Amino acid sequence: QVQLVESGGGLAQAGDSLRLSCAASGFTFAYYAMGWFRQAPGKEREFVAAVSWNGEITYYTDSVEGRFTISRDNIKNTVSLEMTNLKPEDTAVYYCAARYHTTAQTLSMMALDRNVYWGQGTQVTVSS
After folding, report:
1. Which tens digit of pLDDT belongs to each residue from 49-58?
2. What is the largest CA-CA distance in the chain?
3. Centroid of chain to Cα 103
4. For residue 22, what are the β-bridge partners?
5. d(CA 58, CA 113)
């Protein structure tokens, strides 16, 4: 059974850092591009970051470029999102995502794709 379990969310102040983690099971992790999406109150789910199967190619939305870093560990079957210099506009539920034989750039356009595996989400709240 496919499972993606996020952790690491919480309350932070502007300028703080948080590290989100996603533990994957039930599928061959290294065959999948992995990513993070988020959904803020009143908004649709949007792309944040993605990483290729081997961790060598990453892709970010403009608003987090230079502040967030995505990485993966194909031994532990985990993907992480290191968030620095957090801003109030980063407040959202963050979702881990996985898609078979997909490039990082392609995954960035799949916020509504039914062939994406999704985690349950973890809340990140950033205060001013």
Report:
1. 999 999 999 9
2. 41
3. 15
4. 6, 79
5. 20
Query: 99 and 114 in contact (C-beta within 8 Å)?
Result: no
DSSP codes, the chain: --EEEEE--EEEETT--EEEEEEEESS-GGGEEEEEEEE-TTS--EEEEEE-TTS--EEE-TTTTTTEEEEEETTTTEEEEEE-S--GGG-EEEEEEEEET--HHHHTT-TT-TTSEE---EEEEEE-
Answer for the pair 60, 47: CB distance below 8 angstroms, yes or no: no
Cα(118)–Cα(79) distance, integer angstroms? 13
Do residues 100 and 2 make contact, with C-beta atoms less than 8 angstroms apart? no
CA-nearest of 11, 37, 22 to 95 is 37
pLDDT tens for each residue of 63-111: 999 999 999 999 999 999 999 999 999 999 999 999 999 999 999 999 9
Q: Find out whether 61 and 94 touch, Cβ atoms under 8 Å.
A: no
Contact between 86 and 18 (Cβ < 8 Å)? yes
| Residue 108 to residue 46: CA distance in whole angstroms | 9
pLDDT in tens, 15-27: 999 999 999 999 9
